[in-house]
Amino acid sequence: MTAFLFTIFAPLAASLLILLLRKKMGAIATAGAFLSGLGALLLYLPAGTGIELTLQFAGLPDMPFRLHATAMASTLSLVVSVITTFIFVYAIGYMAKEDGQLKFWSGISLFLGAMQLLVLAGDWILFVVAWEIMGFASYLLIGTWHQKKEASDAANKAFTMNRVADLGLYISVFAIILGNGTSEIATGSSQTISTFAALALLFAVMGKSAQVPFQSWLSAAMAGPTPVSALLHSATMVAAGIILLLKAYPLFSPEALLWIGSLGGLTIILTGATAIFSEDIKRMLAASTSSQLGFMVLAIGAGYPGAALAHLVTHAFMKSSLFLGAGIFQHQAGSTNYEQLQGMGKKLKWSFAGFVLAGFALAGIPPFVGFWSKDAVLAAGLLSEPAGWYFTVALAGALFTAIYMGRAFGILWKKVANEIEKSHRPIWMLTGLSVLVAIVILGGFYVEPMVDATGLTIPKSTMAVISGLVAAAVGLTAGWFITAPAIRYRLWSFIQKNYSVFGGYKRLVVQPMDASANFLNVVETKLLQSVFGVGNLFLEFARWLSDAIDNAVTYLVDRFGDLNLNIARLTQLTDDRGIVEWIAALVGSVQRLGKYGRNMQSGLVHRELAWSVCGMGLALIILLLINL
In sequence order, what are the residues at sequence separation of 6 or more whose Cβ sits closer than 8 angstroms to the Cβ of residue 321? Predict the structure, then answer.
């Protein structure tokens, strides 16, 4: 569990720490990458002996999340960590005086954590989560210098194209889970998915791995910092599509593999030609990446995932070295345009030497790493069905690779560049480049044992070796002399701009989307105006109704008040004329009676006795009358 935590969460923690502290960002990010590499090593060591580590934790109902360190996953995790660590070292020098460092360092650490999660994901739900986080991080990284329109447009283009292609991933994952009854990524499944589900998955790969016709976003992404380019084009981002194919390989039917191989072959040729005709070193490398990924897709379609895995790993080191070398040239010349880079190799000999060695490896020159993997793909094409198509396309791609690398060598070496001050020599950048180039030189002999440890095999063929060497020699020689455009005007521009049919991405995607957005904006405005109009109508009605009710209630209250007032007046009148007068009369009578009584009270005893005798006599008379 500790190894998994180090591998995935160390860079994620570094990303958060960078946002909080906002200082020593390069050091924090590099430390996170180093700890991630340490965790990957702890996963790789037991996996190499056949012990696979698994971590399972709560997820969706009946679909727990899994981290699974298979031999292939742990190998890729270690490769990602090593390359990323030294790209970070390089970036400390590259980004020292650049803007957007907070966004860059935090985003690139997040990217590394997401990539490690994707590699080690043992279930499809977790894989999709990692895929999405990585896509978001790449959007941030490409747009590091978002204040520049080119960078902002490139980030939007990459995000838009990948979001469209990602629909295929959702469909295919849904189909896989329904078909297998589990979200677990099965390494030895005997079931296959439908051709439709396989094509949906391939659609997702076309976007993420910049396969035809989604290849143009990768060239546009060169507007970001060179360390971002090196990271996106090596063992991360674009390699995610190949990793997806490798994980899902047991599920593919022969019909699906034919579609996959055909797409890879088409991409090899078209993007390889784009790289030859490019006038910008980073855009050349971007087109080259699409082409090399096409080699991997072709190998998988041919039925040899081992060849694809080998080329995935070797290409990661080769392409990251090439990008780091191009970044040094860019820093010194202030441009990536070939015209501005002419002769730069003579001024930056160590950087040029590293660039050339990595280029030789990519062209397939022994004993560098690319020789072993490129010949494996050629052998896969030769040994598969249909052998003629796959092998021919792969061999043409190998020739194209050698041509565009030879052309880059010639442009960088020929002519004389401007003087460069020694104080400007990038030590950190050279350090990162040197380590990766050393692996390119010495790592070739470890390619086959590494693939064998995963349970896959590398196909071999003497004819593939010989034809690959001939293509490399011819291509490098031809490319050295093609330092200026050999094909002009329409065809050159058509290929150089990624085959922009009918206006390309802008005309077919951007402009229709802008027009749709404007139309929907007008519709929304009209709807809002209608809603506001209806709302105002009801508001006026409510105000009228409120006033009417208020007036009615006021009228009734006033009338009721008047009635009560009249009753009160009547009551007052009755009191004044009736009860008050009656009480007054009663009081008067009592007063008069009292007066008579007072007159009768003389105070003479003999008179009082006389009155008493009279009274008694009167009482006796009354009693007698009653008894009668």
Answer: 354, 355, 357, 358, 433, 436, 437, 440
- DSSP assignments along 169-208, one per residue: HHHHHHHHHHHHSS-B--TT------HHHHHHHHHHHHHH
Q: Is residue 542 part of a domain?
A: no
Tokens of 584: 């007054």
Which range is least confidently modeled, 298-312, 462-476, 514-528? 514-528
Residue 261 shares a structural domain with residue 219: no
Q: Check whether residue 390 and residue 464 sit in a common domain.
A: yes
pTM value is 0.78
Instruction: Give the HSE-up count for residue 116: Cα atoms under 13 Å, Cβ half-sphere.
Output: 35
DSSP class of residue 460?
A: -
**pLDDT tens track for 457-501:** 999 999 999 999 999 999 999 999 876 555 445 455 566 565 654
Counts of helices then strands in the chain (DSSP H, E):
26, 2
Residues with Cβ within 8 Å of 73's Cβ and at least 6 positions away in sequence, in order, are 43, 47, 119, 120
> Are the beta carbons of 108 and 141 closer than 8 angstroms?
yes
Whether residue 48 sits in one domain with residue 2: yes
In angstroms, rounded to a whole number, what is the distance separating the alpha carbons of residues 443 and 451? 13
Residues 92-137 have pLDDT tens digits of 988 888 888 999 999 999 999 999 999 999 999 999 999 999 999 9
Q: Are residues 257 and 124 in the same domain?
A: no
* Tokens 């889970």 found at: 177
Q: Is pLDDT above 50 for 503?
A: no
